[in-house]
């Protein structure tokens, strides 16, 4: 993958580098799901203004897209990618045959995954949907830095190719690869453990697609294990243990207010407090970490 040094199937080959670049540790702290509701979105902006969030991913089918685009113009230092979506809300594509239920809404996460594994979602429709999602974000005045997806759906069979195709049409050559090491059983909840196992079974093939397409990604990824319950000390420890190269850390801060979705729980506010804690910025400096967005990848 151009500019990364990643070997398909391995987490990274940064050990092969020589010279001054070897010791650099760069971090993209990306807040997912901007646009899923307004409290979450305002919390993401706060985590950038007052904390260490450098990047965010916005949902094209959000009813708040235009309002958020206006707010983002006031935050030019925040890199913004497209959070490709096949599992929440309604498609932008008119009358899709395979992507939506009878009510015209995307299938839920588990059902979408099952249909993808069974080959029941039309990949041409997915390509068209992703193309329209990126176009809508750009039409709102946002210049996307990268692509990722809700529930990491883009690592499923055929979907990464669709994402790369759509990205290439819009000049986007950076895509998330959620290749996170699986922790020891018992160190995270069973749900999170098996979620990580599932993704690792998919990302090797997804990495091959990125390599073949010449698309850039980070050397490392963290965040799924942290989503089991973020604590200040756990986040601090994750920063201290980051390997050489560029790591993306996925976070999901937000505010919990009336109108927020179920996932916008107390954990989102807790995560916001951690990301805006002065101790985290101090640790970033002490650990010699460089905070970047996908723009500098």
Number of DSSP strand runs: 7
Number of domains: 1
Structural class: alpha/beta
- Spell the H/E element sequence: EHEHEHHEHHEHEHHE
Shape: globular
Low-confidence runs: 1-10, 12-22
Write up this protein:
This protein has 297 residues and is α/β, with parallel strands linked by helices. It has a single domain (14-296), classed as Alpha-Beta Barrel (TIM Barrel), CATH 3.20.20. 37% of the residues lie in helices and 12% in strands. It contains nine helices and seven strands; from the N terminus they run E-H-E-H-E-H-H-E-H-H-E-H-E-H-H-E. The protein has helices at 38-49, 65-72, 109-117, 123-139, 159-169, 190-213, 232-240, 266-275, 278-286; strands spanning 25-34, 55-58, 79-84, 147-149, 220-222, 245-251, 289-292. Strands 1, 2, 3, 4, 5, 6 and 7 form a seven-stranded parallel beta sheet that branches. It is globular. The N and C termini lie close together (12 Å). 43% of the residues are buried.
Topology:
Elements: E1 25-34, H1 38-49, E2 55-58, H2 65-72, E3 79-84, H3 109-117, H4 123-139, E4 147-149, H5 159-169, H6 190-213, E5 220-222, H7 232-240, E6 245-251, H8 266-275, H9 278-286, E7 289-292
Parallel strand pairs: 1-2, 1-6, 1-7, 2-3, 3-4, 5-6
Helix pairs in contact: 1-8, 4-5
Brief overview:
With 297 residues, the chain is of the alpha/beta class. The protein contains nine helices and seven strands.
Keywords:
297 residues, alpha/beta, TIM Barrel, seven-stranded parallel beta sheet, 9 helices, 37% helix, globular
């Amino acid at each position: 993958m151009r500019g990364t040094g990643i070997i398909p199937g391995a987490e990274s080959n940064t050990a092969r580098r020589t010279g001054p670049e070897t010791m650099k540790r760069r971090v993209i702290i990306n807040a997912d799901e901007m646009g899923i509701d307004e409290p979450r979105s305002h919390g993401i902006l706060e985590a950038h203004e007052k904390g260490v969030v450098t990047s965010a991913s916005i949902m094209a089918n959000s009813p708040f897209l235009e309002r958020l685009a206006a707010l983002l113009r006031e935050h030019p230092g925040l890199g913004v990618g497209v959070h490709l979506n096949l599992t929440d809300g309604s498609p932008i594509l008119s009358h899709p045959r395979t992507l939506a239920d009878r009510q015209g809404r995307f299938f839920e996460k588990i059902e979408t995954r099952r249909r993808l594994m069974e080959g029941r979602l039309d990949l041409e429709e997915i390509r068209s949907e992703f193309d329209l999602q990126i176009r809508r974000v750009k039409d709102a005045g946002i210049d996307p830095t990268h692509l990722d997806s809700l529930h990491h759906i883009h690592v499923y069979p055929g979907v990464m190719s669709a994402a790369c195709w759509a990205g290439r049409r819009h000049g986007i050559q950076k895509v998330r690869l959620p290749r996170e090491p699986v922790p020891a059983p018992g160190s995270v909840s069973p749900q999170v453990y098996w979620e990580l196992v599932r993704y690792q079974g998919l990302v090797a093939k997804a990495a091959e697609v990125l390599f073949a397409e010449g698309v850039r990604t980070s050397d490392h990824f963290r965040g799924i294990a942290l989503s089991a319950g973020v604590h200040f000390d756990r986040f601090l420890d994750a920063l201290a243990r980051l390997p050489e190269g560029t790591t993306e850390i996925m976070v999901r801060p937000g505010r919990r207010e009336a109108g927020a979705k179920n996932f916008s729980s107390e954990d989102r506010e807790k995560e916001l407090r951690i990301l805006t804690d002065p101790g985290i910025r101090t640790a970033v400096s002490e650990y010699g970490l460089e905070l970047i967005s996908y723009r500098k990848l």
